[in-house]
Amino acid sequence: MITQELAQETKFISGVYNTREARELMNAIIDKQINFYKIQCLKEYEGDNLADSKYWNEKIEALIAKRESFKEMINAAKGEDCGISIDGVFEMKLIK
To answer: Which residues contact 20 (CB under 8 A, 6 or more apart)?
Structure first.
């Protein structure tokens, strides 16, 4: 029986960072997510050599595009000598 809340949320990596720190955070988080998707794709392939990897490839490509977009924003901030505010929220819900 579940006795805790059915949804939980926490903030992490929230704050204002310089461009170097923001770039490191962004790369670390997106690279981890890309690697997670690659592993999931590989697991499916190992279970079924005919498995379609389109779903995982699209998710990976979307993350790569988002990373490029963030890089452009970070470069613009560097050119303007700005800090970067990052507000990372992790939310987890139980779904039945």
So the answer is: none
pLDDT per residue rounded down to tens, the chain (96 residues):
555 557 788 888 899 999 999 999 999 999 999 999 999 999 988 888 878 889 999 999 999 999 999 999 999 999 999 999 999 888 888 887
DSSP, collapsed to helix, strand or coil, labels residue 5 as coil
Domain range summary for the chain, segments of one domain joined by +: 18-89
In sequence order, what are the residues at sequence separation of 6 or more whose Cβ sits closer than 8 angstroms to the Cβ of residue 33? 63
Residue whose structure tokens are 């507000």 = 87
Q: What's this model's pTM, rounded to 2 decimal places? A: 0.80
Cα separation, 74 vs 62, in Å, equals 18
